[in-house]
Design a protein that fits this description.
This protein has 4 helices and 7 strands. The protein has helices at about 10-20, 25-40, 90-105, 120-130, and strands spanning about 1-5, 50-55, 60-65, 75-80, 110-115, 135-145, 145-155. Strand 3 (about 60-65) and strand 4 form a beta hairpin. The longest helix has 16 residues, at about 25-40. About 25% of the residues are buried.
Length: about 160
Amino acid sequence: MLIRPMNEQDKQSILEILYNTPEFNPMDLAVAIEVIDDYLQNPVDSGYNIMVAEIDSNIAGYICYGHNSMTVSTWEIYWIAVSHNLQGQGIGRQLMAEAEENIRKAGGKLIVLETSSTSLYDKTNRFYINLDYKIDCQIKDYYAPNDDMILYEKRIL
């Protein structure tokens, strides 16, 4: 597997992954596409880093992360998605490891990410916990009634 920065030719494959990820609703998809477009228009100044996992010349997943510009050394994982038929093969784990290493090299000390508390996200929440992310807080009814926001953190050295 090759993990590399996203390019314009990857966009359609990433969109297919996003559209086939049941956790993402239409609002999520609109924001994800906007972020991808911002990155592709100006990768250096967009504030985003987008990496893709490529297997046999096919895009298997992607991760989007960036430095929170209002902080000294806090970074955020904004998006991660792996093709549904390839989940459970370590692709997401490798994407996270690559992002964490890049963040560490850039002087990052804290990584935060947020996700939903609904049962649709049970697998996602287990994934983050298995990668040693700790729940920092949970905000009730954040996204919608009975859909809390769970904020995770991981301190890196």
